[in-house]
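User: Predict the full complex structure for these chains.
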Amino acid sequence: MRDAYVVGAGQSDFGAFPDESYRSLFRSAFEHTLDGTAVEPDDVDEAIVGTLGVGGRQLGLPGPAVTEHVGLHGIPTTRVENACAASGYAVRQGVQAIRSGMADLVLAGGVEVMTDVSSDAVRYWLGVSGETEWERLSGTTFAGVYAQMASAHMREYGTTVDQLSHVAVKNHANGAKNPHAQLGFECSLEDASSAPTVADPLTLYHCCPTTDGAACVLLASEDAVDRFTDARVRVAGVGAGSDRVGLAQRDTYSGVPASQRAAETAYDRADAGPDDLDFAEVHDCFAIAELMAYEDIGLCERGEAGPYIASGATRPDGETPVNTSGGLKSKGHPIGATGAGQVVEAFDQLTGAAGDRQLDAPEVGLTHNVGGSGGAAVVYLFEREHDWSDVADGEVVA
Amino acid sequence: MSDLAITAVGAYAPRLRIAADEFAEAWGRFEASGIERKAVPEADEDTLTMAAAAAKRALEAAGLDGEALAALSFATTTPPLAEEELVVRLGSMLGAPGTASHRQFTGSTRAGTRGLVAALDAEQTPALVVAADCPRADPPDEREHAGGAGGAAFLMEDGADGAVVTAQGEYVTPRPGERFRETGDTRVRGLGVTNYDRAAFRDALAGAAADAGIEDPDVSAAAVQAPDGKRPYRAAGPLGVDGERIKACATVHDLGDTGAASVPLSVARALADGHDSVLAAAYGSGAGAEVLRIEGRDHVATDLALDGAVDLSYAEYLRRRGDLGGEEPEGGGAYVSVPTWERSLPQRHRLVAGRCSECGALAFPPEGACTNCGSLVDYERVRLPGGGTVEAVTRIGRGGAPPEFATQQIRSGAFGVAIVAFDGPGGGSVSAPMQVTDHDPEADGELSVGDRVQVVVRRIYTQEGVTRYGGKVRPAGE
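Assistant: Here is the predicted structure of the two-chain assembly.
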């Protein structure tokens, strides 16, 4: 099977943009993705677009609706829906298309507009990816389901509210250095722990915002990559998994088995392990989600995530920096764009384009994207094959 | 007289209370004399859920399964729907067979005793006669100040030991305008012609007592219709009982006017308190009355839950009553159609789970591949007893709930949501997400992982005009 490489990756700003549409946001992401590559629109063989469709603005055929807008009409375009992992899975389908030989250059991305509907209406949509008949109608949206997971994690392992708050403090500090971030300000542990409760024990600072935004990734086959860029960011491993949609049906509430399966597969395919990671972008829709991710992808032992984050191990200067982009918490969480957005940060870090957030010559990065409360998950390992000196200035050109 | 005997009694009142003083503070005076406090339904309660709660207690007291019922009746002046037989959903909540007689009585505060008399006449047994009510009126109206809530249920069996009706009579006399509710209106009113009203009440009851042939009833308790805390005592003379007999089993002083459940609740209290002979004197405006003498309580099993637990301010009361608005917001998104909901009624109403034919594990709902062994099997249906243990829990404030619950939150504020490991019949457990009701952390303490809870049937949400009823959990041991 031939390898797939990331040729370019870009995102729109994440935030609330009353003057933008899902199409104009996608265009912004697409244009950033082309930056620094030799790709012309005619080179793209296929497109895969992830979106949930919040607000119902274009539930049918949203894929062609955005690709036609950026001049890619005519090529095969598919919409992928896996809730918050929609574009994480779009990228996976792109990798499949390339590895199978059906395409040499694939655009995979996602888009979501969430802030142009009333706060009541957005709550309808925030709950659509939970198990509808029983879980939703017990009165929960995702904040409630993740709060239940937090209650189980706290009960089993003694995790504390302050340990949850460390996620917010770290990710806001990172996001403050990301010009694309929605909430680019810093916060204190006190701010996070004493904020109003959304779903006990989660406070406002333990929850990501609702966001408008788009993100895209260009994937090329090993046969074609050199035509488009000097950078060589290889998709070293992909893993994915699913689980029962409703939390109550799962084997555990204090971890995400789909993430564990996805990570295991991705490490196996990449012939690597958690010790090989130089950084990770994980799905921190709620603070407890980041802590569970540490355990699910093997950064620390099960139950140790609370002390692990408190030790500073996942800060930019720690042993495995996590969410240098600001994560979903600070950068924002436009549902359908989030998984591809994580790949944007990984690509930027591996090509020296991460600006004030740039890590010191990383070689291997992981991204971890979860749909719903764990009904779907996808994990990637990306590996830098180019010399760091070629990209140290952040310029990657063909 | 019929051979039917009352063998078990159940009663239920919501745990919320408001004191007369709260009304006095809000309105300058309290208009419903003789009522010290009254019961207030929680935002997710109505006469159907209260009827179910009372009925389940009667069945449990008797040790009888709902599947054994041959007849079921439901009496209320305030059915949540003006048309559509809610007694059918009550039957579903109890597991009554589809071939059992299902009858609903409404339109009068004597509907509760009409249900009793109808059961005596029909002689289909076992019969469960249920009454629940929560009358409403305009906020300044004395009838609103009086309006309480509660329900009672009587299990009647043929030839069994229990309490029997030894005399019964009925009388009507046309007296329009004393208390009425116009078609389409939710609030009772009356013209307030004091002497005319009192005479209607007195004359109807006196006529029914005479029809029953009861001149001088030798009873230790008298359950008399109580639209307020004074009116029943005005019937003492015509009924041939003294005020002490009425007071002995009165529920109006602590529950308020419970409409069609007023006399049934007082009979229930009398039987539970050991009174061997009870006069039941029910009145409905129009006017009509029924008088029954009930004797022999030795073998009557009783299970009453009428205590209050939480006192409301007048503002909180208005919120619970829904007087402060609350509409389901627009927006779409997730949607459960009524036919889809209907398919889950055995689970919503009765916690019907499944047992895997391959590995014996429990499944809830009983569909799809077994979560234990993965086999795609048909499940043997088993009913969960209803007790469970909290495995994960949160509390959802305003802004955190799906919009289906917006109206409920406007009325009763934050609520808990738990994953509950329900006890299986004969061991094992199966987990399901459930909303928590009747729980206020400030009054009741936190609900935590490991705590025990018990299922109750409540209103879940209303969409397209159709209220979905189903299981919630409340802290056990209450």
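The first strand of chain A starts at residue 4 and ends at 11.
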